[in-house]
Structures are given as C-alpha cells and as structure tokens.
Amino acid sequence: MMRMLRKRERVEHRVLGALQCSDATTLVPLDTPLTLAGDGVELVRNRSGLYVIWEWTGLAAHAPAFDSPPPVPAFGSEPLDLSVQDPSGRYLPRRARIALPRDPSPANAENTQSLFRPIDVPMYASPNAKVGANWVVLRVNVRETATRDALGGALLRVVSNGRVLARGLTDWRGEALVPVAGVPVTTWSDDPTAVIVTEIAASLEAVFDPAAGQRTPEAMVLAGATDVAQPVVDPDAIETARAGLPQAATFVSLAPGRTLSVSLQVTVP
Fold first, then answer.
1. Which end of the chain has less neighbouring CB within 10 Å, N or C?
2. CA distance linking residue 123 with residue 23, whole number of Å
3. Could you confirm whether domain 136-266 is CATH 2.60.40?
4. What would the pLDDT profile of 231-250 be if each residue is shown by its tens digit?
5. What pLDDT is attached to residue 195?
6. Is 239 helix (H, G, I), strand (E, B) or coil?
C-alpha cells in the first residue's frame, strides 16, 4: 500500500513597508478601512489595520529577493505616491509620498526609515466630523483675496510659542474643521500681573500651493454645487515648501470648549 505524503509549499516574499493611518488630532490609529491607491503598487490591509506595501513596479526586484534586498537603489531614494480616501467622509482625502526602499536591518529597527516601523499617515477631519469634549474647534473659511475663489487643499496650522498644536485641510469649498485637543483649562501666564490664564494665544496659518490645490468660483459654492471633486494634496509637501508659498495668518485665543469661526484671505499670484 502506497502512503500519501503531503508537502507544504514554502512561499517567501519581501514586503516593502507598511502604512498606519491615524487621526491627526488624537493620533489614534484608524480601524475603519480606507482606500489607498498608487501607480503600479499592490497594498494589503492586515489584521492590525496596517496597509502593507506588498509589491511595487518601482522595486520589482525586491519582491523575490527574500534573503537580502538588492544593493540598489539606495534607501529612501525612490518616491512612491499614494492617494488615501475615506469612503465614510469623516476624513478628507490626501496624498502621501513614501520614500522607498526602507532599511531592512533589524539592528536599525528603531530608526524612522526602518522597514520594521510603519509609516504614519495622519488623516485630517472633514468639516462635518465629530469633535471631542473640551476641544477647541476652529471652523475656517479660506478665500483668494481678489477673486473670492474658495481655496481647496490649503494647509492650516495652529501655532503657539513656536509649537504646532494642530493641523487641518480645506475642502473644495475652502471650508475646514481644525480641532485642537489638549488645551489646558488653566495654565501659567507670561504676564507678571496674572499668575494663571484660562486661554492661550496662537496663530492660525493658511498655506496654499497653487500647483496642487483647487480653486472654486465663489458662485459655485454659493449655489450649493454637489458634484465638485475634493482636492487631493500632500500636506507634508505643502508644509515643507510653505516658506515659498502664498499664505495668510491671524491671531486666535484658544480655550477648552470654545468654537471659533475664522475667515482668511490668501493672495494667490
């Protein structure tokens, strides 16, 4: 009698990295599925909610090279551009540029460019997102100075004492919700006549990249158009280039539970 033997198939595959999408305000990883896409890339969402970069045509030789990766290209020299969309509409879409390949050495696992560390992609709240108790809520409207066009895809930053407290993005209507969490109920004052204060001073900045953002005529916004696509920008790229981009700023006073409505006008050449 012949005995049947079973042979296990051995599959080895080198992944290129992983992304972790998180709430930009709370920094909590998102557990609801998002839609990620890019040219020539295959992504797989694992049980931990990470989006694993399974294959990419830009690094095709890496997939079968399990024992050791090819020596070229150099770490971080190849940019992979992805779009990230939230089907539920709680978060605005965005782009993310991922520098590949990642460093595969276990000895460097604590480094930010390590293959063993997921790449964090903050997602910014849409104007109709829910806010938490005691958050400062900034509802912002961004327009072009001369034309009154709505500026979609503008990056918003809330800065106090040189530290960025919160960031946000505008939608196609130029509207944005920028929640600021963690503002203390009372804090120490810099004024020698007051020991403590119940609000802190900050600057609200709007930065617009004409090459990436979206301009919508004011008439379309007022008419309540519903078929306008949302802008998809890379907020990290805007922040890196912000010194040379059109921008505007205004002062705001932040206090827990306070809601502020702010309008900003940005002059776009």
1. N
2. 5
3. yes
4. 999 999 999 999 999 999 99
5. 44
6. helix
